[in-house]
């Protein structure tokens, strides 16, 4: 089984993300175009292969092939939101995905490939934001934006507790419907890197 139901227990999955457990699903998502397709659908909603192709760096036929591959693992599905029966619309199966580093060799290797692909996909996000978004932000939004770079000594259990606490704070906002957002709400991206150092 490539996916499992989210665990909403303590330290679990408060966002309700799809959890990848199958190494084959992790490798399927490790292609930059597939990851871009899934990200686009999660952010902007249902779209056709042709519409997606303009944003993911692939032709409509190649994009369609990648969509079918993602669908094999339950990451995307057919959508009836398009309203045009002549076109095939796709949607993300969930607003987010998550995976862990399994203990077995195959799973560990697959999760490393996916992790590196995701890091590479997002490494330029701050630079693009600084160049194209930040200059036009209103002062009140600019004050709340930015980054932090904090080093702290933690045990593994303490780190898990910190991660869980951050997710609990964000979860009500992540999971609410767009119709329930108050006036003035904007899309805000939280890019959070958790980078433990090697043991001395």
Word description of this protein:
The protein has a domain at 1-123: Winged helix-like DNA-binding domain superfamily/Winged helix DNA-binding domain (Arc Repressor Mutant, subunit A). It has 8 helices and 5 strands, in the order ββααααβββαααα. It has helices spanning 23-29, 32-44, 49-56, 60-72, 105-122, 125-132, 139-144, 156-175; strands at 3-4, 18-20, 76-79, 89-92, 97-99. A 3-stranded mixed β-sheet has the order 1-2-5. The longest helix has 20 residues, at 156-175. The model is unreliable at 7-11 (pLDDT under 50).
Q: What are the segments in which pLDDT stays under 50 over at least 5 consecutive residues?
A: 7-11
CATH architectural group of one domain: Orthogonal Bundle
Structural classification: mainly alpha
Q: So what's the CATH class of one domain?
A: Mainly Alpha
Radius of gyration: 18 Å
Share in β-strands: 5-15%
Rounded mean pLDDT is: 90
The geometry reads as globular
State the CATH topology of one domain: Arc Repressor Mutant, subunit A
CATH superfamily of one domain: Winged helix-like DNA-binding domain superfamily/Winged helix DNA-binding domain
Number of extended strands:
5
Give me the strand/helix succession: EEHHHHEEEHHHH
* Largest sheet properties: 3 strands, mixed
Strand order of the largest sheet: 1-2-5
Percentage of residues assigned to helices: 40-55%
User: How far apart lie the N and C ends?
Assistant: 38 Å
Number of helices: 8
């Amino acid at each position: 089984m490539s996916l499992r139901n989210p665990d909403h227990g303590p330290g679990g999955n408060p966002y309700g993300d799809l959890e990848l457990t199958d190494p084959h699903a992790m490798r399927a998502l490790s292609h930059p175009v597939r990851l871009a397709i899934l990200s686009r659908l999660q952010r902007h909603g249902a779209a056709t292969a042709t519409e997606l192709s303009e944003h993911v760096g692939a032709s409509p036929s190649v994009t369609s092939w990648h969509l079918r591959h993602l669908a094999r693992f339950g990451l995307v599905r057919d959508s009836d939101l398009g309203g045009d029966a002549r076109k095939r619309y796709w949607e993300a199966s969930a607003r987010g995905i998550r995976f862990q580093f399994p203990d077995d060799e195959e799973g560990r290797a697959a999760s490393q490939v996916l992790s590196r692909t995701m890091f590479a996909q997002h490494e330029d996000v701050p630079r693009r934001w600084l160049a194209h978004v930040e200059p036009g932000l209103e002062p009140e939004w600019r004050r709340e934006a930015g980054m932090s770079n904090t080093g702290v000594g933690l045990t593994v259990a303490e780190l898990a507790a910190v991660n869980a606490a951050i997710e609990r704070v964000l979860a009500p906002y992540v999971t609410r419907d767009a119709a329930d957002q108050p006036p003035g709400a904007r899309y805000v991206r939280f890019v959070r890197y958790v980078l433990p150092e090697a043991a001395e």
